[in-house]
Amino acid sequence: MNLNMYKRYWLVLILCLSSVSALAQQRFGINTGEGVQIDYSNPRVFEVAEIKYTGLVVLDERAVTSYAGIRVGDRIPIPGQQISDAIKKLWDQGIIADVQFWLTRTEGDKAYIEVKVTERPRILQFQIQGVTSSQETEITDQLGIIGKVASAPLIKNTEILIKKYFEEKGYLNTVVKTRQETDTLINDGVRLSFEVDRMEKVKINKIQFEGNEDFDDSRLKKPLRNTKERARFWLIAHLFDQAFKTTPRTAFNYVAKSDTVSEQEFKEFINDNVKLNFLKSSRFIKAEFEEDKKSLINWYNSKGYRDAEIISHEVEKVNDEYINLKIEVDEGQKYYIRNIDWVGNFKYTDEFLTAKLGIKKGDVYNKERIEQRTLFDGEGGDDINSLYSDDGYLFFRLDVVEVRADNDSIDLEMRMSEGEQATIKRIILRGNDRTSDHVVLREIKTLPGQKYSRKQLIRTIRELGQLGYFDPEQINPQPIPNLQDGTVDIVFDLVEKSSDQIQLSGGFGGPFGFVGTVGLSLNNFSIRNIGDFEKWRPYPAGDGQKLSLQIQSNGRRFQSYSLIFSEPWLGGRKPNNLTVSLNRTANRSIDPITDEVFGFLKSSGVTVGLGRRLRWPDDYFQISNSLSYNLYEVANFGQTLGFENGRSNIVTFNTIISRSNIDNPQFPKYGSQFTLAINATPPWSAFDREYYENPELSEEDRYRLVEYHKWMLDLSLFIPLNNKFVVNTRAHMGFIGSYTDATDSGPYERFFLGGNGLNGANNFVIGQDIIALRGYDDNSIVPVDPETGFRGGIVYNKFVTELRYPITTAPTSTIYVLGFAEAGNAWNQFSEYTPRKLFRSAGFGARIFLPAFGLLGVDWAYGFDSDRQLGIEAGSQIHFTIGQQIR
Predict the structure, then answer these.
(1) pLDDT in tens, 14-59
(2) Which of 721, 751, 758 minimizes the C-alpha distance to 733?
(3) What does the DSSP assignment read for 4-51?
(4) DSSP secondary structure string, 68-86?
(5) Lesser CB count within 10 Å: N end or C end of the chain?
(6) What are phi and psi of 2, to 5 degrees?
(7) What is the pLDDT of residues 655-675, one digit of tens each?
(8) Beta strands of 443-592 (E only): which ranges?
């Protein structure tokens, strides 16, 4: 029986081996044509007389022949290993679906071979489902699979690339499935459809550190700016959980026994149950995590741990929604500065350079701080490199070398090469196709013949950005040194942007109904090119002059026109600014039945001003002086001017002293602005006091020549918190006074607070100064003089704090969001003024700057204070703004 069993086993084994051999011959052997016989047990050597490939559609026969390795003239055994190897080589290319070698005939020792090939289909088209159009475009640009063979490895790699794309964006559970469809028109073509299920973004549950001895986990999490744990507050849930699990025995133990809790245990308990970063995303983005790892090492380096490194990190899956992140660190030794030696310095002494460096013996070794103090430490230029480069030493080089490290101490050697002072040879402008060269060159602070100065180069970038003609983000001057003669050429690559603005708006102005506004501001105008039509783009442009025209009207009842022209460089040699403005406004009372005008209030004015830049206290200061004349005419229009019929003449001398060093007019990130404006009329009452003290003097005669002096102070400061957030704090104050007690300033130039501060439909009463105060109705904070009945304050105060965050600062549009808190008020008398009684508000908003329309904004604000006398109730308001508001 056992013998029979062994025989059966051997029989089965022989059959299996025979089957494998037959399959191997079928796949890797050779087939024979009709009438052709070969002996598999006794291979015969033939010369290949012919080898032809059939079934090829896209593949080139020469390429396939090269892959196979068998050519005409080769002597090969048939059957034999060479044919088997050729079949394997073709299979390994991944482009063949099936291949068969046929021996069609033999003539003596010559063999005629036909290779029947079935190509794999090629990808004609593919689509990615379950993604946005922009995501599909980005993925398609990365794949590049059109025209390639639809092999299994290619499809698998494509699925991996798609998954990797979404994993980098936080979708760690992305699933990709592929569906193939044969093309009905092209036999060897297929269409692929990648079906993507991104699932939800994975969030971080906890971040844990290992190997940290000198800093606890909570401290190490702070440098991870974009890798944060999910927000949680589980204290109450934890207390309820403990309460429900409490038994009489455990309750007795709580009372009878006490355990000491260490500070570390307490911190761990709080960290496990409380995390209040509700404004931070906890999504796990691999690319951001890699950057945060570098930030963590930089933070360690700043604390003296120069050898700190991240050994490994592990992503532990909690569920489909959350992961735990474990980071293993090696802190290394903490180092301190011992000695600092200077080598190669001739201009300055070792003691001076060490004091300038601001790092002394015993300080913690901070690699980042050393780089800042030696290379570039902000716009102020208070570092070693700026010390030399601001004095012409363009070729200055400084290398910080660690020459010795003993225990926890490091000796530094500052090896420098001062080089020669470089003189500016040429200024080369490129890209200013619309703006004339002289407009750009007059703003440049680094002129040919002067010593090179990095500080002045940075100042030039700011000045060119302030023009508004070029994209400030792309102003990047390139110094090109000429080592042969010790000079330097500076190339300014500029990108023009539109600075002109069109204003189209409308609104309801109380009794005036709908009022439309049309405005056009040409900020790069050129009178010189008016006659040269070749330089019209589409108007005469390029000389930096400004021409502004605005029209407001609702028909006959209200009309307002203004024209302003400004030449910033009068004469072309010095920055003397000439401004000429004309304005005309008419308010009419019209009978709605007869359409007849029975009253009016008209105003006409002209202003001529001349301003210039100052050199003291510094050249950021400017002063402007102007002379203005305004004529007011009233007839049967109530007591708007203090009388019903007559004229008022106002002649004012205006002086404005200002300073501005902000970096970008659309979205300032740093810098400050200061403005002091003084408007003063002649002291008519001082010239003829008896005339104004006459008790029989009519109001019409009293205000025929108006007198007042007006003071306005505006302060603004921009402070960057990091690369994105910017804090803007502002303070504003204004005061109107008269020269003698014989008369007052009348109803002119008084302060109206509240609303969005627009001077449009709600500013039809002539001579008002509208001050924005969000959270309150337009022009709602308006005190009334109990004696004269004049509306508006003669003194006001306002304080603002804004936190701004940019969405985009592209030249085509600048968009940012903001949160704010502000307070302000206006008073009838200076004796009533107190900065402690202010109307307060807070809210948030957004701004968008479009080159064609200027700055547009919307704010939601809540006013906290009420006033029965003024009819003000606390509540929320939505405000729309147009233009850059000063106050």
Answers:
(1) 444 444 344 334 444 677 777 677 777 788 888 888 888 888 877 7
(2) 751
(3) HHHHHHHHHHHHHHHHHHHHHHHHHS-EE-TT----TTS-EEEEEEEE
(4) H---TT-EEEESSHHHHHH
(5) N
(6) -65, -35
(7) 999 999 888 888 899 899 999
(8) 478-482, 487-493, 501-508, 514-525, 545-553, 558-567, 576-590
